[in-house]
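Example record

One chain of 503 residues, shown exactly as stored in the release files.
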Amino acid sequence: MANPTITKKADLLKLNPRDNVAVALHPIAKGTELHIDDLVIIPNQDIPQGHKIALESLPENADVIKYGYPIGHVTTDVAAGDWIHTQNVKTNLSGELDYTYEPNLHEIKYPKQDLTFQGYRRANGKVGIRNDLLIVPTVGCINGMAEIIVQQFKQKHPDLGPFDNVTILKHPYGCSQLGQDHKNTRQVLIDAVQHPNAGAVMVFGLGCENNTIKEFRAKLGDYDESRIKFLVAQEVADEIETGEAILEELLAVAKDDKREAIPLSELKVGLKCGGSDGFSGITANPLLGAFSDFLVSQGGSTVLTEVPEMFGAEQVLMARAKDEATFEKIVHLINDFKEYFLSYGEPVYENPSPGNKDGGITTLEDKSLGCTQKSGTSAVVDVLHYGEKLREPGLSLLEGPGNDLVAATALASADCQLVLFTTGRGTPFGAYVPTMKVATNSQIFEKKPHWMDFNAGRLLDEAMDVVLDDFIAHIIAVASGAETRNEANDVREIAIFKNGVTL
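Predicted structure tokens for this chain:
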């Protein structure tokens, strides 16, 4: 969807000509005279910022239209000027659906530009945007010893030498796990070891866990033995001394690493949102969608995840499948995740969180139609299972939950060098790859400057092409080494999806 023109003095925003609701761009008092299109609307209640107001009278059970699509139905008669939210709207969704392949692709293409970023070319041909030293525990009970080793390494090398960051991927797993839980843990840790942002890795095991170093190494396949080292604590007299010696070896191997010019086509970016509000689908998510279209036009790759937040908008994505085989993959992606919810007796369509609702999101359709705008207009070229890596350039969908850190970790596992994360409520978290926070509104950007990286709230005053140009420049700077706020705060984490069934 093209970004609507928004003026600084506007009170309301109608996102699509078909809509029968508009969004309040600031708090609006009851009785205020409002003008939109050729209508004069008088609010019957106070309307919070980011929330919806009825532009016409709607009889009970009539659909509420936003983004040009139904986001639910009213549960009572409403009048023009009424506040439209959870007190009078309910989802239209229920149960699993049958889907038909009906292609409807209208891609927005951008001219190719000779753009580069400064990255690290690895021996296997992949490209990193960081030269990180990772310590990857195979089991949670070794985390404490890893911290001691890293503390002593940093005391000797406070500037970190050739490394941008030194990170322990601490987690509580690796032992007493069975089935898919065990496989997920092992695979996500292997993905981290193989990540192109890692300049060097020490895999650190205890020795008696079921995520054994022997099996881990076998599953790793071919790897650079000069850059990836293994330590089993129970097999050495002093694991701290041995661990320090291994990090010194890795430091020596990486000492001459240098950034070089890399075509933008080799950038792989994850798309994620969290703490959404009523502006998410108006500012930040459309900005990511425009960037996704731009990067795909340059030959690059973007990845959209959070499958539960596709529910209600999945048919929009299905219509963009590059072919019928990809459409079938999307159908399985959606239905498998619905079955996962139902297998635990959980409702499929009660997704918006209390924070989402406070911010103006009413139903899952409302959230999903805004959420999926991060994917732009490009064709969906592939669907990845959890833990799988990108196979081809373009827009891919990735199996993963809505949980912020689990989903961001899954994006890193897919070889995304960077995660773009939109938020209207704010969050300080960061994955083990740079996690760039994009504010949906200027208030959160100004309130939390130590969390936020870019202000998409500018789109309430500025044209999309102006903001997009600045956004592209900012992303290229981050890909070339500029710190994101999560890196500056030294917040880099990993989280692994835990579930006993195969999705």
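Notes: Confidence is low (pLDDT under 50) at residues 1-8.
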